[in-house]
Amino acid sequence: MNSTLIRAARMPDGTRGDIAIVDGLFADPADAVSPSTVIDADGLLALPGLVDMHTHLREPGREDAETVLTGSRAAAAGGYTAVHAMANTSPVADTAGVVEQVHRLGRAAGFTQVVPVGAVTVGLEGSTLAELGAMADSGARVRMFSDDGHCVWDPLVMRRALEYVKAFDGIIAQHAQEPRLTEGAQMNEGAVSAQLGLPGWPAVAEESIIARDVLLAEHVGSRLHVCHVSTAGSVELIRWAKARGIRVTAEVTPHHLILTDEEVRSYDPVFKVNPPLRTEEDVHALRAALADGTIDVVGTDHAPHPAEHKCVEWTAAAMGMVGMETALPVVAHAMADLDFSASDLARVMSARPAQIAGLTHHGSLQIGTGANLVLVEQDAAHTVDPDLHATMGRNSPFRGRTLGTRIVDTFLFGQRVYAAGALGAPLAFTEAGPWND
Amino acid sequence: MKHLLSTADLSRIEAIELLDTAEEMSLVSTREVKKLPVLRGLTVVNLFFEDSTRTRISFEAAAKRLSADVITFSAKGSSVSKGESLQDTAQTLSAMGADGVVIRHSGSGAPHRLATSGWIDAPVVNAGDGTHEHPTQALLDAFTLRRVLAGLPASGPADGARGLALDGAVVGIVGDILHSRVARSNVHLLTTLGARVVLIAPPTLLPIGADTWQCDIAYDLDAAIAEHSFDVVMMLRVQQERMQQAFFPTAREYARRWGLTDTRARALPAHCAIMHPGPMNRGFEIGAAAADSPRAVVLDQVANGVSVRMSVLYRLLTGQSAAAGGREGQS
């Protein structure tokens, strides 16, 4: 019996207690009589391992930007015990073969549970449904489908996708971006874009798709997940849809909770992202929505890029920011002024995403479930230095910022993959194990 | 003032100093030997990633009249077309010993990136970036307008404009504001100098967010002409490609509603000057009567462009301000 006892950790509800891990599952501390490892967590906060519904691991195809291994290490360093790998790889993850490849690479890496996301349409082209059933039935057991990076703009294709995945309780994660309204778009459309002379990405391009999609989801009775919500108007639409009983869930990124389009005045492409950074008013609406549950989850939209895609002029630069290793501290920082407790952090970064994605071994500290856990030091001011990150991407917009929360340990099914602030040994995902449940 | 990237960065005093130095420079252009030795031995690189013969030769003339060596680098005949990055280009020029870089780029913010990225240490002059700014165009417009307001010849040597601003002047800028770097630079500079700017355009060609600018906005050109006593109207060029993008129904409808037709030219106050950054689409945004009228100062703008660019290069490459340097150069 392999057992670990974590002593005197502070729980999300504010109480203090011991946490026991036996054979990769949470156990009653009374049953861990002679633990093989004892960890003193006095002063540390224990959260269920974080779950990211939105990550770009770039492999296969862009191994110069990130690999499943380096992305998995970044996940462990950020406290993530499960990450959903988006489908916009090369080749696109639109077949059982590709999702199984990503799944297998994730298992081989052993630093986090990599959950492949399948493309909704062939080649992310928005016209023909990919073999969603085959991906659902594959070894990767895909349940979430997304053309992320592209919007499923055709209303009929979106309707069919929403309907079709009901057969296996799937969910469509929409990248809400009306393509015609955002041709050539470079940043949020508003006072700053007017001055900077950069083509605008209007809020209405996001909101009009969300409005359409929640109505479609209602009509066909399907589950819809809205990726990276970025505007105050989108929040209002989702609030309305939820009040109406529509099965919609929503995500916000850490960067949209803290950065605004004022950053673009520097013309530094590290701030170029899609959807773009919005206004102060949007930031406040997103924070409030995350606090009141209108927005369900935080997803990182971790998007590593090689330096040459960012060391160029703004208009030529790639969109995207890395985010897994700063997500928890950034969210804690962004929500500090609101009444947002450790259990709220656990809800939006672990419990809700696990629930939406159907990951039964993630999202709680409940005895008998997978021992996926992160230990966090809360008053540990440190300066973000992307050069020290595990991801290959250096495109962090938080370089030089001082943040207060630090990841100390990450346990993946009991394996201490991140140990006292450094990468530990990976988990051997064997043929038999709770991860196969 | 290390770079000239945006007219928003210029204080009223700095702007007046640049215009005053340009007055000194305009004297040089009338001399038998049109040259000052002030930048002798220095190299100015014209880095043109976008075609613009007019602006490029204006900067070339300006640099040469200050005795600088000029290297022109246009993207078409360079390695940029082979995928070389802005960073590599900048560092290459730096290694060759550029003392100043004049950059024209189709991407908004490229000059800013060049100036702030640490790739090159030389002063950077924005010669037009995307739909952002074109500061030297605004300076030459301000220079020309200052002459007109003072009742002086619009170009050539003249005494009496030095030290003046544009307080109380009313300026109409008409046309494609959305895509115009000239309009953005002018709104900043002319208001800094005390003028009141009225932008007149179809709503589709005004940026969302323009209501935060320090200027008035109107859709109806006839109403604006009736309402304001313009000292100058500036007609912006409408690019051919906008017509395919459905910003307005047809070229004829645009010309009828926003063109400076002969009738509208007659409706302007008698003292009102007519400007155009060139090249003009005759019969479209500007009619023949306006374009050829004695009140049109389009060619004066071109002449003043050289003086203003001499002033900017002199200021940035020698670090000297005000007209003192210009006088010293004449000796």
Automatic annotation (TrEMBL), chain A:
Report the active site residues: 301
Q: Where does Zn(2+) 2 bind?
A: 148, 175, 228
Recorded protein name is: Dihydroorotase
The UniProt entry, under HAMAP family, shows: PyrC_classI_B
Which of UniProt's keywords are assigned here? Hydrolase, Metal-binding, Pyrimidine biosynthesis, Zinc
Q: Where does Zn(2+) 1 bind?
A: 54, 56, 148, 301
Entries under Gene3D superfamilies matching the protein: Metal-dependent hydrolases, Urease, subunit C, domain 1
UniProt family annotation: Belongs to the metallo-dependent hydrolases superfamily. DHOase family. Class I DHOase subfamily.
Name the encoding gene, please. pyrC
Which EC number(s) does the record attach to this protein?
3.5.2.3
Establish whether keyword Zinc is in the entry. yes
Q: What class of enzyme is it?
A: hydrolase
Q: Name one GO biological process term.
A: purine nucleobase catabolic process
Question: Which InterPro entries does this chain map to?
Answer: DHOase (IPR004722), DHOase/Allantoinase_Hydrolase (IPR050138), DHOase_cat (IPR024403), Dihydroorotase_CS (IPR002195), Metal-dep_hydrolase_composite (IPR011059), Metal_Hydrolase (IPR032466)
UniProtKB/TrEMBL annotation, chain B:
- Coiled coil regions, renumbered to chain: none
Q: What are the GO BP annotations of this UniProt entry? A: 'de novo' pyrimidine nucleobase biosynthetic process; 'de novo' UMP biosynthetic process; amino acid metabolic process
Pfam families per record: OTCace, OTCace_N
Q: Indicate which residues the UniProt annotation says bind carbamoyl phosphate.
A: 54-55, 104, 134, 137, 278-279
Reaction(s) catalysed by this chain, per the record, are: carbamoyl phosphate + L-aspartate = N-carbamoyl-L-aspartate + phosphate + H(+)
* Cited InterPro entries: Asp/Orn_carbamoyltranf_P-bd, Asp/Orn_carbamoylTrfase, Asp/Orn_carbamoylTrfase_sf, Asp_carbamoyltransf, Asp_carbamoyltransf_Asp/Orn-bd
Keyword annotations of the record: Pyrimidine biosynthesis, Transferase
Q: Where is the Aspartate/ornithine carbamoyltransferase carbamoyl-P binding domain?
A: 2-146
Per the UniProt record, which EC number(s) apply here? 2.1.3.2
Pathway, per Swiss-Prot/TrEMBL?
Answer: Pyrimidine metabolism; UMP biosynthesis via de novo pathway; (S)-dihydroorotate from bicarbonate: step 2/3
What's the family? Belongs to the aspartate/ornithine carbamoyltransferase superfamily. ATCase family.
Q: Subunit structure, briefly?
A: Heterododecamer (2C3:3R2) of six catalytic PyrB chains organized as two trimers (C3), and six regulatory PyrI chains organized as three dimers (R2).
Known function:
Catalyzes the condensation of carbamoyl phosphate and aspartate to form carbamoyl aspartate and inorganic phosphate, the committed step in the de novo pyrimidine nucleotide biosynthesis pathway.
Identify this protein by name. Aspartate carbamoyltransferase
- Name the species this protein comes from: Brevibacterium jeotgali
